[in-house]
Amino acid sequence: MLVLDATQTRAALPWDGLLKALGDMFANGCVMPVRHHHDVAVPGEADATLLLMPAWQPGAYVGVKMVSVFPGNQARGLPAIHGSYLLSSGRTGELLAIVDGGELTARRTAAASALAARYLAREDASRMLMVGTGRLSANVIEAHASVRPICNVTIWGRDPKKAEATAKELSLKDIAVTIATNLEAAAREADIISCATLSSEPLVRGDWLKPGAHLDLIGAFKPTMRESDDRAAERSSIFVDTREGALSEGGDIVQPIRSGVITEDAVCADLFDLARGAHPGRRTAEEITLFKSVGAALEDLAGAVLAFEAQRETS
What we know:
Blueprint: E1 2-4, H1 6-11, H2 15-28, E2 36-40, E3 48-57, E4 61-69, E5 81-89, E6 95-100, H3 101-120, E7 127-131, H4 135-145, E8 152-156, H5 160-169, E9 176-179, H6 183-189, E10 192-195, E11 214-217, H7 230-235, E12 237-240, H8 243-249, H9 251-258, E13 267-270, H10 271-275, E14 289-292, H11 297-314
Parallel strand pairs: 1-6, 7-8, 7-10, 8-9, 10-11, 11-14, 12-13, 12-14
Antiparallel strand pairs: 2-3, 3-4, 4-5, 5-6
């Protein structure tokens, strides 16, 4: 059995290989039951949460991601979120690998957005705005730079020092990186805007989006959260990672539907449709596109299988 730590997981998931693995998984499909959410009592503290995300390819692989969120860890100086991915044989049930869940999640999430950008961002998109400074941010920038000719990246965060720290994490050549102090000004110039925050209020306004812009919304994973306003949904051609997930959990889609600005029919396609060629993605150079992701268990399975097979070949 293989045990892959964060460093090994990252090395086993290069962007080109990971995007191909995700594209193949969306094109071919897998069994993906509804994810499980469980409240876990912690005496004297706020409840913790246990999330289980299973998926499998019959006869090939069975996987489940286990994630725990313990809010009380902040007072102990520990990360609130811990996760591991368990990958087993789809023929015998034998446990094959334990993959670092945090690194797997960060890489596959960024790769899913970059996969969408292949279909939705203009081919000449060169200016990117990253809204957010968390663990995902550097991954998202690097993933997009692997599919579009990004030469200018601007990073915006509520804390400029964190934005500067994110800039230092980047390992990209020939790309100018700046820190934004004015979010509106940066958004109006960007070809691609990616948001990975925990915001409950709109950060990016639809009226800021220039013709041909691509808006990539990653962070708002609950119906009560959002990173864009109703106007963004109204002006954009909307795409999602999975219809079921985005229409039930993605606040950037759920809230405009509830307010009557758009209907469910406004969602043009999901990654299944795009990967299978059922929808061409961007149709015109002036079209504004919006991609909303909430994550899917098949993305974790695709990444875990890729990491396992890559490490097995080198060991």
